[in-house]
Amino acid sequence: MSQAATIEAHEFTVASEKRLPENISTQIPESLARLIERAAAGDMVAFEEIMKHSEKRVMRMTWRMLGNEADARDAAQEVFLRVYKYLGRFKQDQPFFAWVYQITLNVCRDIARKRQQYNTQFISLDNGNEAASVISDTQADAEETLIRVQERELMLRAIATLPERERAAILLRDLEGFSTDEVAHIMRSTATTVRSQISSARQKIRVYCGRYLKKREERRCDEL
Amino acid sequence: MNCKSVEPLLSLYVGRDLEEEESRLVAAHLQSCTQCSLAADEYAWAGQLLQEYEPPGFSDEIYAGIREEVLNEIQREPHARVWSGVFSQLVSSLLQPRMRWITAALLLVISVTALYLSRNRSRQLPSDREIVVLTGQPAQAGSGTHVQSESSNESAGSSSFSNKERVAIATTHRRNTRKREANAGVVATNLSRELHTKVGPLLPSSDPAPMRVEIQTSDRNIRIIWLSGQRSVAGGSEGSKGL
User: Fold this and answer.
1) Whose CB has fewer CB within 10 Å in chain A, the N or C terminal residue?
2) Would the pTM of this model clear 0.80, i.e. be above it?
3) Is residue B99 one of the residues assigned to a domain?
4) Residue B171 · residue B152 · CB < 8 Å
5) Domains in chain A, start-ordered, CATH in brackets?
6) Domain assignment of residue B179, given as a range
7) pLDDT category, A192, cuts 50, 70, 90?
8) Which residue from A9, A52, A173 is facing B41, i.e. has the nearest CB?
9) Which residues, 6+ apart, have CB-to-CB distance to B10 below 8 Å?
10) ipTM of this model?
11) Which residues in B lie closer than 8 A to residue A199 (C-beta atoms)?
């Protein structure tokens, strides 16, 4: 690959990484602040609104942390129960969703410890079902989509190999779009530690995926 | 920058986590180094793969089910959760890095206090076996020295008491309680014999006063009284025992 192509690839990564989600905002919208106040006072309708407002993020994060739908659902329920329980202590001058992510990480850690078979359960059945549905696409696209599914599964396995803290750090930084400082705040750690965890996680993923890539190339060579 | 210093920065460079100056230096190195450039490509590829790591689309029914379960759970046990929440919050706050020293100090104070109280309590507890030996004339028994010993009763008895003195021997043994209770009477009996042998020679033969020895065993209902002196019946034993 030429130097120009290399730089382009880097630029692409940066561009995709810049796809920051809406949850970065540290200022709570006034409507949300009112909902929080009402929910903290025991208004269940307001709390339901808060759940609707944050359920997608919570489910996304729990699924990414735990790797399957059943655990993700259980975790999401527990997250909202804890949010309700501690809502009275939430200070409005801090970012609400960062606080929710804090709870989410704690819940995911608790569930993962309870299950004990974390790594074996991480490879979910969800992907198998999806793979089956993908294979039923047109024959022309089948190979490409199959590769995509394989790559996704590869990433699932790669993430499963990461220690919990590194996994949380890289998911929050690279997928949820938080800055390093925000990740440090959520993980109750320092920016330096988080940077180190992110770096380590990226290196491990690169090595894991690199090994897979090599195997795939070798297999192609054998077939030819 | 050389390859050795660039390599650990590559993952951060690709993720845009470096400071501007460092990032500029790494970019300059990548333009001149194929090996590092390839490594950066691999990071970029892995980063793209990571972006594909999206959960499947969850249906509205799933979200509605979660909300319903949460609301039901909240209404089911509001009080229990509040208390468990307070407790868990307290524990978690005590385990926070800022609070660790305070927690450690609290634990230290609590353990020292507990140790102090337990030692004091053990001192105040009545001794497992208390034997009071009264010797001398019954009329003068109250006017003597009072000696306590924590060593064995035999040694205390042989070294501390004298005629016409009141000797109190308190022993504390913390061995098997059953064994102690079973042996209590035997020890008392042995002691009385020993007292008899020790005290006897000390008594002047011309002393007309009778000698009285009282031995209180661990059982308060049992007191051994041994009398000796001129009142003894001829041909009989020198003393008598009463329980």
Assistant:
1) C
2) no
3) yes
4) yes
5) 26-122 (1.10.1740.10), 161-224 (1.10.10.10)
6) 129-242
7) very high
8) A9
9) B26, B36, B39, B40, B43
10) 0.73
11) 8, 11-12, 17
